[in-house]
Amino acid sequence: MAIELSWKSSQIEGNTYSLLETEVLLSEKIEAKGKDHGDAVMLLNHKTAIDYIYQDRISVVPLRVAAIEGVHSLLIKDMGVSKNLRKRIVGITGTSYTPPENEFQIREFLEKACELINSRNSVFEKAMLSVLFISYIQPFEDGNKRTGRITGNALLIENKYCPLSYRSVTPVDYKKAMILFYEQNNLSAYKKLFMEQFEFAVKNYF
Questions:
Q1: Domain containing 150 — which CATH number?
Q2: Which end of the chain has less neighbouring CB within 10 Å, N or C?
Q3: Total number of domains in the chain
Q4: How far apart are CA 7 and CA 206, in angstroms?
C-alpha cells in the first residue's frame, strides 16, 4: 500500500510517474526514462516519510508543530524547498484565497490547529482536520498538501487504523474539494471524499 500511497499523493501534485514506474522506482531505485528527476525524488521522499511513520520515528500523537515540520522536511528533501515555516506570501492556483502572510501568524495558526485536532475524540476527525488545516494554512513554501495528507495518515496509522491511499480519487476532484474548503470553509466535499477513500482502503488493502 505504501507504493500506491506514495504514487497517488504525488500524482495529485502533478507527478508524471505511472503506478508501475513508481513500483520499480521504490522497489529497485530505478528511475523511469524520460521523466523529470524531481518526480523521482518526490516519490522516494514519500516512501521515506511513510517508513518513518511505520517505524515510529515520527510521532503525531499528540500532534505538535514540530511533528508537522518533521514530516514536511522528509517530503521536500533534495527538492530545493526550505524546511522552515515560510516567510513570504504564497498563492494557491485555482482560488482567490490567500493563506496567512507571515511566519508569526503561521505558527500561531498551526498551534491552534494542533490544539483543536488534539481535542477531538474521533481519530477520523483528527486525521481529516489535519489534512484540511495544514493545506489551508499553507505553512511552507511548497509541499503543504503532501504534508497534510501524510500527517493525516500518520494519525490513522499511529492509532492502528489503515491509511488512505487516495487511489480512486481524481486529482481534479481532490482539488475541487480543497478549493471549496479554502473559499467557503465548507468541508462537506472533502469529508465525503475522505470517507469514500477510507472505505476503499479497508475493502482493497485489509
A1: 1.10.3290.10
A2: C
A3: 1
A4: 19
Its domain, for residue 142, covers 2-205
* pLDDT value, residue 107: 96
Q: Which residues contact residue 101 at a Cβ distance below 8 angstroms, ignoring those fewer than 6 apart?
A: 89
- For residue 139, give the nearest of 102, 178, 112 by alpha carbon: 102
pLDDT at 206: 72
pLDDT along the chain (206 residues), means of 10: 92 96 97 97 97 94 97 97 91 91 94 98 98 97 96 96 93 96 96 95 84
**Alpha carbons 58 and 124: distance in angstroms, whole number:** 19
Q: How far apart are CA 132 and CA 185, in angstroms?
A: 10
Supply the pLDDT for residue 143. 96
Alpha helices in the chain (DSSP H): 2-12, 19-28, 37-54, 65-75, 103-119, 123-137, 144-158, 171-184, 188-205
Residues 6+ apart with CB under 8 A from 164: 5, 149, 152, 153, 156, 194, 197, 198, 201
Joined grid coordinates for residue 72: 514536511
Contact 66, 125 (CB under 8 A): no
Q: Which of 62, 61, 87, 86 is nearest to 72 (CA)?
A: 86
- Per-residue confidence (pLDDT) for residue 71, from 0 to 100: 97
